[in-house]
Design goal:
With 264 residues, the protein is an alpha/beta fold. 46% of the residues lie in helices and 15% in strands. It is built from eight helices and seven strands; from the N terminus they run E-H-E-H-E-H-E-H-E-H-E-H-H-H-E. The chain has a seven-stranded parallel β-sheet, sandwiched between helices. Strand 4, helix 4 and strand 5 form a beta-alpha-beta unit. It starts with 6 loop residues before the first strand and ends in a 7-residue tail after the last strand. The structure holds NADP nicotinamide-adenine-dinucleotide phosphate. Its EC number is 1.1.1.100.
Amino acid sequence: MLLEKKVAVIHGGGGSIGGAAARVFAREGARLFLAGRSLPRLEAAASAARAEGADVSIAVVDAMDQAAVDRHVDEVVDAAGRIDIALNAVGFDHVQGLPIAETSLDDYLHPVVGYLQTNFVTAKAVSRRMIAEGSGVILTISTPGARLTGRGLIGNAAQSAALEGFSRALAGELGPDGVRVVCVRPHAMSDALATSYTREMFGRTADANGVSMDQFVSGLAAMTLLGRLPVLDELAEYLAFAASDRAGSMTGAIANLSAGALVD
Ligand SMILES: NC(=O)c1ccc[n+]([C@@H]2O[C@H](COP(=O)([O-])OP(=O)(O)OC[C@H]3O[C@@H](n4cnc5c(N)ncnc54)[C@H](OP(=O)(O)O)[C@@H]3O)[C@@H](O)[C@H]2O)c1
């Protein structure tokens, strides 16, 4: 198994990506600590991961709050001895699809500040424990907005490009301590729409463009080389590989999981 005896913390562990990653990490032998905002979603993710045979603990932790995340990380290390893998899969609805003239400063800054804040908070909390161990992997999640252009993308583009820059710089800082940082950049996942905040967000963009949700999603798929969007399991499998010792030489990387919407 890829992650046998590894201890993994997933912030946003009850979300679409957090839950999918939890299932695959569990199947690959990891001991899991899922932290998130809503207990019912955490419980559902934990029960799916336990069905794969994993030992899973859950905790309600605000991933924007440094003191709360630090406390939880300390509890995880007290219980499991160390943290090998930390995935920040926190996500929240924000404004996309509007021209700059119709976007307020607050709406523009909301994803920029929010995603940069939670990734700083969780990386700061886990890195001090990983540095002490001389090993660990921090996983961040960006979006194709980091490199796309077009109307309605400014907030998403700024937060995604900044998060990729943060991940690269953090990899440079933590590399000498044996800690890897890998950022994944998946396109919108078709099966995440059932549970993710993206349903509301893309729904508003589709409405603003006078198309149905199906038409909007088909339009995104048509812009990929594969003619389809990625699915949650593809991202979760990649995350498990990136977190494993088999990817031991991978750090400072931005993994392109855009199904070919972007080429490198
Ligand atoms: N879905 C996609 O297609 C896609 C594509 C590319 C990148 N991404 C990125 O992937 C990440 C996760 O997306 P997702 O689709 O998995 O979203 P999701 O299904 O909506 O899940 C996000 C999770 O984050 C939790 N959360 C939000 N604020 C929190 C906070 N302050 N503290 C702790 N937990 C918090 C949510 O809690 P609640 O359960 O209380 O809502 C939810 O469980 C985002 O960064 C997003 O940009 C997603």
